[in-house]
Write a structure and sequence with these properties.
Blueprint lengths: L6 H20 L10 H19 L8 H40 L6 E3 L4 E3 L1 H16 L2 H15 L9 H42 L5 H22 L1 H19 L2
Antiparallel strand pairs: 1-2
Helix pairs in contact: 1-2, 1-3, 3-4, 3-6, 3-8, 4-8, 5-8, 6-7
Length: 253
């Protein structure tokens, strides 16, 4: 009995899996270390099998050397797309870091091995909230859908040009800082005005201990106004998800 083996389909699944794995390891929310590596690998293989009939239609078997080169290309494509998504969502983490810095919480920073970030309370809280919102609102489905659509623009083993991703990374880095300032900007302005008011109070009444008064006052202002920013995070995550998908599709266009 002869069992036919379609080598082209197997190679297509392998290449698609590599792009998926490289993407899932870097891009949020799948990059969170709370998800075991085995789960990420099984998810990548499952997605590759699901899209193989679509993405491997025009793929033909290649020699060993060419296939190894194609594997490197797919890893590079997946890692590049994942890093672009990471840059988009890093704005929330950066906003939390700014709030920690200006609110006086930066002294209590610690390393979180699950999310692989080094920050204080608001940095970690904003990061975990963004991850939870991506799953609660179905944003992760949009990200996976955007990744699947990249196979239409960048077929298997075709590689990705360096000009467009490099430009997108520079633009994404700029947008990350801009988005972080837009999220945390109002709170930063209020904290700056509070520092100015405490400085003027020290000049008017030197007997008052402005340093002892300033710490609890800034903590109270930070917690109250950060709650307002926290309530606005679902809309921010939704906007960033749309921006991440748009960036992936523009780079692979």
């Amino acid at each position: 009995m002869n069992i036919p083996i379609d080598l082209a389909a197997i190679e297509a699944i392998a290449l698609a899996s590599l792009r998926m794995v490289a993407f899932l390891v870097i891009a949020p929310p799948f990059s969170y270390n709370g998800f075991p590596a085995q789960v990420k690998g099984m998810l990548a293989i499952g997605l590759a099998i699901a899209v193989a009939p679509r993405v491997g239609a025009g793929y033909h078997t290649a020699d060993t050397g060419v296939f190894l080169l194609d594997m490197v290309k797919e890893l590079a494509v997946g890692a590049t797309l994942g890093f672009l998504v990471f840059l988009t969502f890093a704005a929330i983490q950066s906003a939390g870091s700014l709030i920690d810095l200006f609110g006086g919480f930066q002294l209590a920073q610690a390393f979180d091995p699950q999310s692989m970030i080094n920050g204080a309370q608001f940095t970690r809280m904003f990061q975990l909230t963004a991850l939870a919102l991506l799953f609660a609102t179905g944003g992760y489905q949009l990200i996976i859908g955007g990744l699947v659509r990249t196979f239409d623009a960048v077929p298997l083993a075709s590689g990705l040009g360096m000009a467009d991703p490099a430009k997108a990374m520079v633009t994404g880095l700029t947008q990350m800082f801009l988005s972080a300032l837009q999220i945390a900007g109002p709170l930063i302005v209020v904290l700056f005005l509070a520092d100015m008011a405490l400085g003027l109070l020290t000049r008017v009444a030197p007997a008052l201990n402005a340093l002892a008064l300033g710490f609890p006052l800034k903590i109270m202002i930070t917690i109250v106004l950060a709650a307002v920013v926290f309530v606005a995070l679902p809309g921010v995550v939704s906007s960033l998800t749309d921006g991440a998908v748009k960036t992936m599709l523009e780079v692979t266009r």
